[in-house]
Amino acid sequence: MLIKTDNKGFTHAVPSEITPRGIYQQRRDLIKLMATGAAGAAVATWAGREAFAQAVAKPGKLAALPGAKSGAAGAVTMEKVTDYKDATSYNNFYEFGTDKADPAKNAHTLVTKPWTVAVEGLVKQPKTYAIEDLIKLSAQEERIYRLRCVEGWSMVIPWVGYSLAELIKKVEPLGNAKYVEFITQADPKTMPFVGSRVLDWPYVEALRMDEAMNPLTLLTFGMYGEVLPNQSGAPVRLVVPWKYGFKSGKSIVKIRFTDKEPRTAWNKAAANEYGFYSNVNPSVDHPRWSQATERRIGEDGLFAKKRKTLMFNGYEAQVGQLYAGMDLKKFY
Ligand code: MTE
After folding, report:
1. Residue of 228, 190, 217 lying closest to 88 (CA atoms)
2. Would the N or C end of the chain have less CB density within 10 A of its end CB?
3. 203 lines ligand 1 (CB under 6 A)
4. Ligand 1: which of 199, 207, 218, 248 to mutate, most ligand atoms within 8 Å of CB?
């Protein structure tokens, strides 16, 4: 995602340079078909493969994590859910490499048992939770949310978890707690890219207290009815659907309540490109590319048009009031 040549000698691809995996595959298929004079059959072949992918895209590899379908406002149900295989093979998890395919290849080394999450800082009831207890703290729900990455792609994923607010209520924040910081695992023994100079480890993200309390903010333990696969942030991650994907920290080990706005990983790496708020906003461009449209992963056929990006990723009715009166160009 850091996408420039920085002064530390890392060269990162810009989004426009990356050929989406599907398109690349389809181009190769097309070239093969053309070579055999069968180009006319190409469209039908692609359509058929799409239907086939939907039909066979059942996980069934990991422990089930059943959640009742959520009626929570904002849980998208009308859009086509991204194929499980795409959602778990095209990832950003820099602890396991910077290529989209790296996390699926490398994250098997992540050790998720035993796992604890320490809740600390400005709270009346600080506590270290074993992951098993954290999962049981409140009823799991399945919520279908869009995830829009700052790089210009998006997915629609059935996440399983409960509102972070449920945990926050249990630990009773003090009156001066204004922010919640999420500190993620940074173990160089099990995460091969921790120690690389791309980011300052651990990967840290944070929200303002009212954002953290918003019912849409999901403390997430599973997806597609199963526990999270490692590359998706096992055993617990955040999903904040109205913000760019990098606000959704993976493999969380600490949740800390503070009175000052925390420095976050991407903000530290490039403050002029990645702000604290990072709300999805089609009218505020990234300094090096537009944010007006997005490519839905799995819909990247030759004829697929890019989608228009929606304000707050389509969750404006639920969260717009959190930013009333704020200049969102300044607080990007
Ligand atoms: N969390 C950690 N710990 N490390 C990361 O590199 N990448 C972020 C976010 N959480 C990241 C992270 C980014 S840039 C995005 S877009 C989302 O995770 C991607 O989530 P997904 O791979 O499940 O789609």
Report:
1. 228
2. C
3. yes
4. 248
Q: Which structure tokens are listed for 148?
A: 């829009």
At 131-148, the pLDDT tens digits run: 999 999 999 999 999 999
What are the extents of the domains in the chain?
Answer: 78-323
What is the phi/psi pair of residue 120, to 5°?
-145, 180
Rg (CA), the chain: 20
Residue nearest to atom 17 of ligand 1 (CA): 245
Which tokens sit at 113?
Answer: 């048992």
For the Cβ of 291 lying below 6 angstroms from any atom of ligand 1, the answer is no
* CA pair distance 260, 267, nearest whole angstrom: 15
93 lines ligand 1 (CB under 6 A): yes
Q: What is the pLDDT of residues 59-95, one digit of tens each?
A: 788 999 989 988 887 887 789 999 999 999 999 999 9
Which residues have a Cβ under 8 Å from the Cβ of 37 and sit 6 or more positions away? Answer: none
